[in-house]
Write a structure and sequence with these properties.
mainly alpha, 127 residues, 76% helix
Length: 127
């Protein structure tokens, strides 16, 4: 039972860090390199497609348990400490704008559909 509780706590911390990254992205003082990495991280975290599919036993969860926290840690290292602290304070009371969340989800879905279309077109239809 403690393993499940530990996973839930880590999941909550991960979600909190995603909120911090979102707020840091909106800050004009955040370096562009951090912003670029934040876009990739949040896009990947919200995307229904993983590098390693989740249905593969054990290995399927590695990208969510190891890869995602590593790139979040890397992005946090690129953000200046004062901006990071300000965003951590704001993240404790931050409420997501549901309309913008749906818009972002739709944009991510369209991007994945276009990627799949171009891959299929290049591999099978371009003869």
């Amino acid at each position: 039972m403690s393993i499940l509780k530990n996973i839930k706590n880590k999941s909550k911390k991960l979600m909190q860090e995603l909120i911090v990254l979102h707020l840091a992205y909106k800050n004009p003082k955040t370096p562009w390199t951090a912003k670029a990495l934040i876009v990739l991280i949040i896009g990947y975290a919200l995307s229904p497609i993983d590098l390693i599919p989740d249905f593969i036993p054990v290995i399927g969860l590695l990208d969510d348990l190891i890869l995602l926290p590593l790139v979040i840690y890397w992005a946090i290292k690129l953000i200046p400490k004062d901006i990071l602290e300000e965003c951590r304070v704001k993240a404790k009371t931050h409420q997501w704008n549901k309309r913008k969340s749906w818009t972002a989800a739709i944009i991510i879905a369209i991007i994945w559909i276009l990627i799949v279309y171009f891959i299929i077109h290049a591999l099978f239809l371009n003869k």
